[in-house]
Amino acid sequence: MSETAAKLVLQRGAESAIASAEVSIGQIFLEFLIIGATSFGGVVPYLRGSLVTKRHWVDDKEFVEMLSISQSLPGLNATNMAILVGDKLRGALGSIAAIIGICLPGGVLMYVVGMFYRIHGDHDFVTAALKGVAAAAVGLILFTVVGLSKKSLAGKFDFVFMALTVISVNRLHLSVPRTLVAVGLLAILFHRPRKKQKESATL
To answer: Phi and psi dihedrals of 83, rounded to 5?
Structure first.
């Protein structure tokens, strides 16, 4: 890593630490309330845009790690992420504020939309609108994946691990937990500290 890149990482880490130290329970609730009310078509791009880019509560490395944990555990990624970020910022109360904030607008909106869909769901304009939203959601997720991959995929073998995951789930139809455990173990073995690295660190 170059000196400029190292300074940038340290600067972002310092900004994240300062921002997380000053955040209140009310700010956590309000931010996740906004995310829950505006995250149309997929919550991950909005989480990254709000928590990493806008608020600097976490950096890209922490975001990827939390997202990996959220995807590895049962439940929705959004609620899992809210719990992890809330706990990082303000402990148990932060987790409670975050999960209530992110779930409240979606629950209310889905109740209203469910009533509307039951009455008007068979209309052509509703079907066309849903197809357009689905296409936009794929684009948002792809945009986030590309942005995170620049931060997370450091070496050539990281792309191999990514390809193994996609092939295992999409083509071989293996379960997600089994795939994550298997590929995760391979990644741990590959990225484990080597003897030369340990020796150089001690010198």
So the answer is: -65, -45
